[in-house]
Write a structure and sequence with these properties.
- This protein has helices at about 10-25, 30-35, 40-50, 55-95, 120-140, 145-180; strands at about 95-100, 110-115.
- With about 180 residues, it is mainly α.
- It has two domains: about 10-50; about 55-180, no CATH class.
- A hairpin with a 5-residue loop joins strand 1 (about 95-100) and strand 2 (about 110-115).
Length: about 180
């Protein structure tokens, strides 16, 4: 008989094997691989039995090292994002602005202008704002505990940046269709 989720209940034999493997010092993922039971279910069963995977000094040290690594990666990502925002601002504030304009038949022409066209200024300022939003989210994430929270935050950031890029691309495509043709 299956449960609401459509999976059959874990047999007592599987529970016993999970307990035996845990007592032998195997980790959650190894137990899940050997028994064919999901890692979350393995953890649940061990917790029901009063056990834990967190008490092993190797697990504690490994988790701490992984958290430190994720923190360093977030800081490096944050530095890159801020540098990108600064580079965009430098481009906006330069005395000349290089751009590509489409001419007859869709031919692309490189141009150096002594001003930033309004559409380009809007797009670049939007990009700076996006960078700063990502930076702010990373900063807020520094207080999160655990590698799962950090991983979840990075996935969320990736999806947000990807969505923003797709939106900006769609807006740019729409503007390109309305663009004044340059001879």
């Amino acid at each position: 008989m299956s449960m609401a989720g459509g999976r059959p209940p874990i047999s007592q034999a599987d529970r016993d094997q999970i307990a035996t493997l845990h007592a032998a010092g195997h980790g959650r993922n190894e137990i899940a691989r050997r028994t064919g039971v999901g890692a979350g279910t393995v953890t649940k069963i061990i917790h029901e039995l009063g056990g834990s995977f967190d008490r092993d000094p190797g697990v504690i040290a490994g988790t701490a090292a992984q958290q430190a690594d994720l923190k360093n990666r977030r800081l490096a990502l944050q530095s890159r994002i801020i540098a990108r925002a600064e580079a965009i601002m430098t481009r906006l504030e330069a005395p000349t602005f290089q751009t590509i304009l489409r001419g007859e038949g869709g031919a692309e022409n490189a141009r150096t202008l002594d001003f930033v066209p309004a559409r380009d200024e809007k797009d670049l300022l939007w990009a700076v704002g996006s960078c700063m939003t990502v930076d702010e989210r990373i900063e807020k994430g520094q207080g999160m505990a655990g590698d799962q929270a950090a991983s979840s935050m990075l996935v969320t950031l990736f999806k947000d940046v990807q969505g923003a890029w797709e939106q900006a691309r769609a807006e740019q495509d729409a503007l390109d269709m309305d663009e004044v043709r340059v001879p």
